[in-house]
Amino acid sequence: MTPDERRALLRRAFDAGVAAAHPAICIPPHLPEPPKGRVIVLAAGKGGGACAEVAEAFYREKHGLGPDRLTGLAVTRHGHARPTEFIKVVEAGHPVPDAAGLQGAADTIAIAEEAGPDDLVLALITGGGSANWVAPAEGLDLAVKQATTKALLRSGAPIDAINTVRKHLSKIKGGRLARAAHPARLVALAISDVPRDDPSVIASGPTVPDPSTLADARAALERFKVEPHPDVAKALNDPANESPKPGDAAFENTSFTVVSRPADALKAVIETLEQAGVEVRVVGADIEGEAREVAAEHAALARAIVGNGHPVALVSGGELTVTIRGKGGRGGPNQEYALALVKELAGTPGWAALAGDTDGADGGGGAPTDPAGAVVDAGSYERARAKGMDAVVFLNGNDSTGFFEETGDLLNTGPTCTNVNDLRILLVDIPDEAPR
C-alpha cells in the first residue's frame, strides 16, 4: 500500500463504524407501537436531531400519526439539527452548556409533566445529552454550572465522574426526567457513548435510577482537585438534591434499551479491515486513561509487531482523557493520542493510525467544523520537522490541533449525528515509502 491507500483504508474502516451506529439503522427496530394517546418524543445529544427525524418518519409513514398525536422536542449540539415537521429541534452548546440548552431542558421537563396516562413518552438519548439537557438545581445559575463543567473537563476526570457531579446539580438528570413524566409510560432508547454502556452514565441517566450519591459527587470534585463554587458546595450538601434511587415510583412504568453501543461500531471496523486482508488485534473495547499514556502503550505494542511479515491493525475503543497542562492549546483526546503516537513512533517505518470521535468532534470550541481527530503516519514526523515543528513542544502545550493543521493530518468529518465514543486504529508492518 501507498501512504494514501493506508489512509483511505483507515478512513473507510472508521466510516463503517460510524455508519453502523447511525439512528436510521439502530432506532427503528425498537420503536414501540403508538398508544391510545400521543407519542411524545423527547430527544437529546449529538444524535438527538437524527433520532427525532427517524422517529417522526416512522410514526407518520407507518402509523399515519398527525400533529395531534405526534409531538415533542429534540435538543442537539450546534450544527447537528435534522429536518422535522412535528417534533421541534433546537441546537445547544456542547461540551459546555449554554442558554439554548437551558431553555430546551426547561421545555423538555414541561412537556414531560404534561404527559397523561394514555400517552407514550419516547426518550431518545445519545451522548452529549448531559450538556444539551441542562437544568440547574435550585440555587444554581447557568454560569456556575458552565464553570464547573469546564473545570472538570480540564482536570482529566473520566465521564462517569463528570456525570456523577452533573446528576446532583440538575433537575433533569439522574432519573428526574422519569419523575417528571410519571405516570405516563416512558420508553427510553439510548445510543451508548460510554465504557460498559452503563444506563446511569449515558447522558447522565435522565430516565433511570441513579446509584451514585451526593457524597460521590463531592468526592469526585475532591479527587480531581476541582474547588467547587460556594453555590455548588451548598447544592451538593443539600439532601433535596439527592437523585431518585431504585424502587422509586417514578420508574414503575419505564423501560430502557441500549440500541447501539461502541462494540457495534468496533465490529464494523474489524470487518472492514479483515476484508482488506489485515489481521486485527483488539487492544480493548472500553479503554480509559490519559491519552498520551495510552498512546505510549500502543506504540510499544506497534514496535513489537514490526517485522511480523503481514499487516496488523491494533484496534481500540473507549474514551480517553486529557489533563490540560498548556495554555491556549487546542485539541481533544483523539488528537492528543495521535500526536503522542507521532512522538513515540518517530523513526519507526511502516505504520499509520487514525484516532477519531464518532460524533465528528474531538475537543474544539463546539463548532460543527471542529475536527473529529487525526490520521497520522510515518511521514507525519518528517513533515513537521521540515516545518521546524517539534511534536514534544506541541504535546506539552496540549496543542494537537495546531500541530495537525500544519502537517495536514486533521480528520474532518463534520457532524455524524450519532455518538458511540472513540475509535482508534493503528496499522503496523507495511513496507514504508518516502513520506508524502
Automatic annotation (TrEMBL):
Keywords assigned: Kinase, Transferase
Cited InterPro entries: GK-like_C_sf, GK_N_sf, MOFRL, MOFRL_assoc_dom, MOFRL_protein
Sequence ranges assigned to domain MOFRL-associated in this UniProt record: 10-236
Keyword Kinase: yes
GO molecular function: kinase activity
Ranges where the MOFRL domain occurs: 313-422
Keyword Kinase: yes
Domain of life the protein comes from: Bacteria
PANTHER family assigned: GLYCERATE KINASE
Full protein name: Glycerate kinase
Organism (species): Chelatococcus sambhunathii
